Backbone:
């Protein structure tokens, strides 16, 4: 898939699988199923066309072909592909939103300190740990 | 299921899981806390804490460490599990398995060398949720 796997393995939440809770680790994660909760990765998050993520996300790069709802931090890049839908609050170092993609919500640039470090919502302390 | 994670390098297991679209795979450096449900199979090599309710096969491969309530159709353990394990069809403990807790299953196999501390209850599936098989006919 379209990601560099420099942090090693890619774990997979397959289409018929639902995870409610917290997923964290030093890997890439590919979601074709459903994840609800928290995702915290040293690697990349790839949400396939059938994937549905409702979560607070912290990942290196995030590529969305399916649907993502929540508060999302992409330390490198957030990419919403033509079939992808994003709804929520995004912070990323760079964005790529393809034609046909849906992006609803707030976006901030990582690095523009006045923006990124301002607590955006009451849920902010949870993002730290 | 053709995928048995025993003694395979993690990358090979990951590839095998990915080639079979219904098999989920949690790598050695992934920690999952919470509830996992659904159909399809799951191979775990990382840490998992909480509840698993799977209408498929669960493979617990080293260096996996699981803690919680686990239900699946078949369970193949070569990692470490603490908690309750319940299989609709069978549980298999490999040599490297370390299980502490309670197992409920109609069929069980344990390889010499496996560690098991706890109870086993053997019973036929009563919930009727499994595939219509007749394991009583040998």
Residues:
């Amino acid at each position: 898939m379209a990601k560099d796997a420099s942090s090693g393995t890619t774990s997979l939440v397959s289409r018929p699988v639902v995870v409610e809770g917290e997923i964290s680790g030093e890997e890439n994660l590919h979601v074709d199923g459903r994840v609800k909760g928290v995702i915290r990765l040293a690697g990349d998050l790839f949400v396939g066309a059938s994937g549905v993520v409702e979560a607070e996300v912290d990942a290196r790069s995030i590529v969305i072909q399916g649907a993502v709802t929540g508060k999302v931090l992409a330390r490198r890049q957030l990419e919403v592909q033509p079939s992808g839908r994003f709804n929520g609050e995004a912070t990323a170092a760079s964005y790529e939103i393809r034609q046909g993609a849906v992006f609803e919500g707030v976006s901030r640039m990582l690095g523009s300190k006045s923006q990124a470090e301002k607590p955006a919502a009451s849920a902010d302390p949870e993002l730290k740990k | 299921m053709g995928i048995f994670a025993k003694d395979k390098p993690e990358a090979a297991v990951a590839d095998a899981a990915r080639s079979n679209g219904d098999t989920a795979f949690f790598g050695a450096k992934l920690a999952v806390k919470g509830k996992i449900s659904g159909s399809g199979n799951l191979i775990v090599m990382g840490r998992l804490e909480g509840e698993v309710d799977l209408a498929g096969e669960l493979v617990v491969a080293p260096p996996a460490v699981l803690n919680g309530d686990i239900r699946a159709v078949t369970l193949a353990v070569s990692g470490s599990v603490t908690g309750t394990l319940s299989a609709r069809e069978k549980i298999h403990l490999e040599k490297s398995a370390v299980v502490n807790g309670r197992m409920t299953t109609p069929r069980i196999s344990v390889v010499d060398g496996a560690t098991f501390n706890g109870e086993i209850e053997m019973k036929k599936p009563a919930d009727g949720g499994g595939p219509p098989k007749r394991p009583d006919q040998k």
